[in-house]
Amino acid sequence: MSVRSSDLTERGQALDERGPGPVTVVLSVNGTERSLEIEPRVSLLDALREHLDLTGAKKGCDQGTCGTCTVWVDGNRVLSCLTLALTCEGHEVTTVEGLADGEELHAMQRAFIAEDAFQCGFCTPGQIMSAVALLKEGHAHDDAEIKEWMSGNICRCAAYPHIRAAIRAVRDEAQ
Amino acid sequence: MTTIAPAIGQSLDRVDGRAKVTGSARYFAETPIPGISYAVLVGSRIANGRITGIDAGDARAEEGVLAVLTHENLPSIAEQPPLIPSLGGTAAPGQTFFPMQDDVVHYAGQHIAIVVADTLERAQYAASLIRVSYEERPPLVTLDQGRDQAYVPDRVFGGWLPGRVSRGDIETGLAAADVRVDTTFSYAANNHNPLEPSGTTAEWDGDEVLLHDATQGVNATQITVARQLGIPLSKIRVIGHYVGGSFGSKAMIHDHAALAALAAREVGRPVKLVLTREQMFTSVGHREEQEQRITLGATRDGRLTGIRHHKLSPTSHFDDWAEPSLGVSPEIYGCPNFDGVYRIFRANTMTPTFMRAPGEASGMFALECAMDELAGELGMDPIELRERNLSAVSPSSGRPWSSSGLLECYRRGAERFGWEGRDPRPGRRREGNWLIGTGMASAGYPVVLPPNPQRARARMYADGTAVVQAATPDFGTGVATVMTQVAADALGMSLDRCRFENGDTDLPNIAAAVGSAGSGMISAAVHSAATALRNQLIAQATGDSNSPLYGADPVDVVVQDGVMTAGTARESYAELLQRDVQPDAEATGTWSPPGGDPGYGMMTFGAQFAEVAVDAELGLVRVRRLTGAFAPGRVLNPKLARSQLMGGMLWGLGQALLEANHMHPRTGRWAGASLGEYLVAVNADAPDVDVELVEVEDSVVNPLGVKGVGEIGQVGVAAAIANAVHHATGRRVRKLPIAIEDLL
Questions:
Q1: Among A100, B97, B329, B498, which has the minimal tally of Cβ within 10 Å of its Cβ?
Q2: Three-point CA angle B328, B332, B335, nearest 5°
Q3: Model confidence over B396-412: pLDDT tens digits?
Q4: Which residues of A touch B20 (CB under 8 A)?
Q5: Is the complex ipTM more than 0.95?
């Protein structure tokens, strides 16, 4: 059933019908407005990686099962492989490239290095975006909670105990 | 004699840590290439039969589509070289078969078409429009379907190992036993699933091609693709700096690398080809489904009199492949009689391949579970049984071990784990609804040497900073970090003035880093190059009448922080080069592995301990803690070594409880070809892991005595967990993975 009514969408104003050919999409990524010419079917992940040269978010499965593509939309963690870029207009997208303050790494990035919370590094941007969000969400009170709420991000090198150590270190530093 | 200088042995953070946590580390698919186009592979729906027609009309008509290539129009390859493990330094295709050369389908997912378009979305959509008709025959894929057709091959594992291994007389040995254990173990197939899918970008410039590849060896990619395309090695360059995990899936050079190059040549544009997650199950090999039968014989006092170890597994139509599951069982215990036989049968599968601890992880599950049963039969502590069968020499060759440390691993592992005082009776410990058990197992992994010389290059600049180079990629091992440490020590410099550059065939040749051989062979080459450069600079100074070191005996010169000193005379590398108006100095180093019979048995040893809790009603197994003690020779960087060993141990947990794939007997396809269906350990599965390093000196394996940590961590873990499950519940589960239904 096709219903086009702005008051039926949960996120506010319904989007105009655009496409299927390339259309102009304006995204705010890491605080900067970027304009792209993309087809509406382009995922946020592919828009970032193939069109904006922001390759920090990774494509591990393109099916929402691995978590390597985790970014924030308006501060909430989302799987960018299952998010259409077009739907992010008017929202703030943050990727791992936007986490550090210039040369100054985010505390979580420092903790990942100090705890050796990665090996190949491919899942690391997604892990870090999840880990920072996890603390904000208040889901890091103990290891059992961290384990549960970090299980959407697979690390095939299995650095999990060190990922937990990094999260604990940042949590405890903040208290 | 190698002196140990300050950097080696330090727990340094990874030198590429900043790149990896900020997202600036570029993996193969992330190099911006102007005019890039996108290739998407189409796999066969059927597992056995013939393609009778491919209708690509709709696909070709789609906007942005540049080419649709099938067996009907793809240019033939020059040749498909035989399968030889990539450590060999020759062409190393994953199988002796190259797709899209004819209409025959040997296995499901076999690549049958490539679509190239100007955007990824257009290529993906066009690929979905291709209609293929088949003449389908029933597939043969499972052990039960092929069991009757099994044969004993002359050689397995790319021709590197015999199909039958024996010593003494097994019948006599088993007849002499007071106690016998005879058990059969079954194993689901496993898929590597590194999080970075395999793939290749190809960019032609005239008759030269540049590949960016996800590979364990850029040279292996170069040599393999050059042979397949029939082009000179000098015309192909391969770059692969960062690789997002491999675990063996990128150890051999699978067909997508050459297909990307062929597609790029056809469309006259650079092409990026990235496998989908689903294609990762059908394009890069796997650990084969298998069955292993072990018979142990022992005297009443626990001495082994015979070990019989037979394996049955499917291989492809093209290669006699079986992972070497019978490699450690004849070596780890002193036993005069051994009989090992591989039996394989042809099936509708691609050739299986290396997967972390290939053979050791599966073979030692069987042996170490059987040893636990034997300990039970004998009423003997499992560690005591193993200690009684320790061998001071390699049992197969009679040669002494180049180094061992196994006894120390048992003792220190047991102490850290708290093994002493364990009540051996099963089902005695209960906490609420959880049955608690503990188990242990031995670990062994062969020290594998490359057959060819390994090279590296060191360059000192006139400002006193150095760059050391070798072709190897970094797929998570930390090679860039530890080689910086090795180079700094050999040059007598501080770490921050030394940089390791890698991942490019324009750099000196290194064999693919497989078989846990990477740190040993690369450190040998880097050490050799850096030492050669240091000696060259010392000779230059002592022979230079303008140098304060003039006339000093080069052997008396020591170097620290880049300053050469002999008695009171001092001169830095930088001062020497600047005075001589020399922008830099350079040396190449070569390490030639000992060929032939080194005169020693060479193996890395360890001991694994596990504590599990099993829900008494639901059969749910939770691993509460793991302890592993390992003796990997010299440890170049304990922090990184522990991480890799921990990762291996958690792979063992996945092998024990989670990782399973099955071929459907009717469709011939994998039952689970996604990370939603093929389960790997996630954070919630992973307990804290305790890793103990038992350093042993080894002057045989390579100049620095490094035996490697990539795989030994996984060996034995599944057995320790299964033995702990038995201890908790009294039930022997002789299959992997152990599932809830096995314990209900």
A1: A100
A2: 110
A3: 999 999 999 999 999 99
A4: 118, 121, 124
A5: yes
